[in-house]
Amino acid sequence: GAVVSQHPSWVICKSGTSVKIECRSLDFQATTMFWYRQFPKQSLMLMATSNEGSKATYEQGVEKDKFLINHASLTLSTLTVTSAHPEDSSFYICSASQGANTYYEQYFGPGTRLTVT
Amino acid sequence: RKEVEQDPGPFNVPEGATVAFNCTYSNSASQSFFWYRQDCRKEPKLLMSVYSSGNEDGRFTAQLNRASQYISLLIRDSKLSDSATYLCVVNEGGYNKLIFGAGTRLAVHP
């Protein structure tokens, strides 16, 4: 149980284009989903938290107009990187939990490796 | 100062060795603590939660010292399959925000 999938697992795109990454909870309802980014040899950094049906809450320094998050259902959240630049190349990982407080474990997706050329 | 600090390693140990990792965190209001394991180019996987009383899961023992804001992980009888990066993670509470350390890399050799 508690499986989270991400699609695509890797993507290469040209600078200036937009890329959409999907995060799905396959066997549970995810009230809350989290999006992280990890640069090589660095820690995972939380980008934003989304609750189903509400606007995402972005961490300081993360541009909400560049990283569009939609959490339209209890099993799907999407992250769209708009007007991608090479510095957006990173490992993007989502996690999903059944609630927003610390009682609920976060289950991580396998990640999406984005390369912007 | 980083919110969660770890020695990046690498720790190169032979099979069967005992190895210990340490971690410090800066937010004294942090509510829960974890060790995750991350293999190369993969997502992190929960290894164990860490409690003030200390807890053990097979060859793995975790300790928390809230007064010193210090967390440790001890791995006994290391296996080749233990080679990975070990992430110290702190939950600051509120809306379930996880703060990850940069990880300590372990390489177990024959």
Short description:
The complex is a heterodimer of chains A (117) and B (110). Chain A is mostly beta strands and 117 residues long.
Can you describe what's shown?
The complex is a heterodimer of chains A (117) and B (110). Chain A is mostly beta strands and 117 residues long. Chain A is built from no helices and 11 strands. Chain A is globular, with a radius of gyration of 13 Å. The relative contact order of chain A is 0.34. Chain B is mainly beta. Chain B has strands spanning 4-6, 11-14, 19-25, 32-38, 44-50, 55-57, 60-65, 70-75, 84-91, 98-100, 104-109. Classes of the chains: A mainly beta (117), B mainly beta (110).
* Low-confidence blocks of residues of chain B: none
Please give the count of helices of chain B.
0
What is the N-to-C order of secondary-structure elements of chain A (H for helix, E for strand)? EEEEEEEEEEE
Main sheet summary of chain A: 7 strands, mixed
Helix/strand class of chain B: mainly beta
Report the principal-axis shape of chain B: globular
Structural class of chain A: mainly beta
- Rounded average pLDDT of chain B: 93
Low-pLDDT windows of residues of chain A: none
**Radius of gyration of chain A, rounded?**
13 Å
Strand content of chain B: over 45%
Describe this protein with a few key phrases:
heterodimer; A: 117 residues; mainly beta; seven-stranded mixed sheet; four-stranded antiparallel sheet; 50% strand; B: 110 residues; six-stranded mixed sheet; five-stranded antiparallel sheet; globular
Could you give the topology of this structure?
The complex is a heterodimer of chains A (117) and B (110).
Chain A: E1 4-7, E2 10-13, E3 19-25, E4 32-38, E5 45-51, E6 57-58, E7 67-73, E8 76-81, E9 90-97, E10 107-108, E11 112-116
Parallel strand pairs in A: 2-11
Antiparallel strand pairs in A: 1-3, 3-8, 4-5, 4-9, 5-6, 7-8, 9-10, 9-11
Chain B: E1 4-6, E2 11-14, E3 19-25, E4 32-38, E5 44-50, E6 55-57, E7 60-65, E8 70-75, E9 84-91, E10 98-100, E11 104-109
Parallel strand pairs in B: 2-11
Antiparallel strand pairs in B: 1-3, 3-8, 4-5, 4-9, 6-7, 7-8, 9-10, 9-11
